[in-house]
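Trying the structure run again after the queue cleared.
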Amino acid sequence: MAPEARIGDARAVDPKPASASVTIKHELVLPSDTNALGSAFGGSVMGWIDICAAITAQRHCASQVVTASIDALHFHAPIKVGMTAVLEARVNATFNHSLEIGVEVDAENCTTGERRHCCSALLTFTAIDESFRPRRVPPLLIESDEERARQAEAQERRAQRLASRDRLERK
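Done. Tokens:
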């Protein structure tokens, strides 16, 4: 078999649209998930985000993935006890062996239906093979101007991450 068509190599598959791997996850915020103010612990929300993003990355890659980084995590409003955290994750961009996932988190009051944006995050995952080595990621099929903009922004962030990593390695 030619090296460019090895089993498990993403070059052997067609590009995948972001819509094919979107993940929506719901978490009921219980007292055990909250701080002294009755709001979800940031660490709990981070864990939910990581799981939701990992599912999206695994769906896109059709392989196991590992979290490489969380570039940005911004809390805008609390998620109070008794509310539902609604997480939505989607692929922003793909690279050779990694991909960036964006996650938006809303707080939903299930009795009124009211929702408000609470948190957003950007995570990078590395796809791995059965031997835990990086493997190629299927390309992202861009279907809209919004997705094209997301990919361009993710490519800029990746360039900044790589430059920062290079600076740290030189020290």
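Strands lie at 16-17, 23-28, 64-75, 84-94, 98-108, 115-128, 140-141. Worth checking whether this holds up in the mutant runs.
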